[in-house]
Specification:
Pfam families: Methyltransf_16 (PF10294). By secondary structure, the chain is of the alpha/beta class. The protein has one domain: Vaccinia Virus protein VP39 (Rossmann fold, 3-Layer(aba) Sandwich), CATH 3.40.50. Helices cover 36% and strands 17% of the residues. The chain is built from 5 helices and 5 strands; from the N terminus they run H-E-H-E-H-E-H-E-H-E. Helix 1 runs parallel beside helix 2.
Length: 141
């Protein structure tokens, strides 16, 4: 994929952000991790609604991580951590994550070759956080 894919707000991010806004009253104080965040629209909305958010994208995609940081700065959210997490890889960063209530993934199911890795990562997080939920939006392609 072209590196610019991580710097574009895809329609699925808008749909997930709208869902978060609709449920904003339930987000205050929740611990949220956005995976494959890109420009981080859903994560930014969750943070603006009072959630404790961690944004993540592939550790091998520094432009995406920088995009997450830019979104945080533009939205006056300098306290939101941005982590490099590679789907399918159990890294020290993944192991060190604090407890999570909600995992966000907007359009992470875009390339079938990544499905197993993203599901492995989400499964690991749900096993570690049995009460957590995975909120995702995807576009059938």
């Amino acid at each position: 994929l072209d590196w610019q894919y991580g710097t574009y707000v895809w329609p699925c991010a808008v749909v997930l952000a709208q869902y978060l806004w609709t449920h904003r009253r339930s987000l205050a104080g929740k611990r949220v991790l956005e995976v494959g965040a890109g420009v981080s629209l859903p994560g930014v909305v969750a943070a603006k609604c009072g959630a404790e958010v961690v944004l993540s994208d592939g550790e091998e995609l520094p432009h995406c991580l920088q995009s997450c940081r830019r979104s945080c700065r533009a939205n006056r959210l300098p306290h939101v951590p941005v982590l490099g997490l590679t789907w399918g890889r159990v890294s020290p960063e993944l192991l060190a994550l604090p407890p999570i209530d909600i995992i966000l993934g907007s359009d992470v199911f875009f390339d079938p070759k990544d499905f197993e890795d993203i599901l492995t990562t989400v499964y690991f997080l749900l096993e570690k956080n049995p009460h957590a939920q995975f909120w995702t939006t995807y576009q059938v392609r």
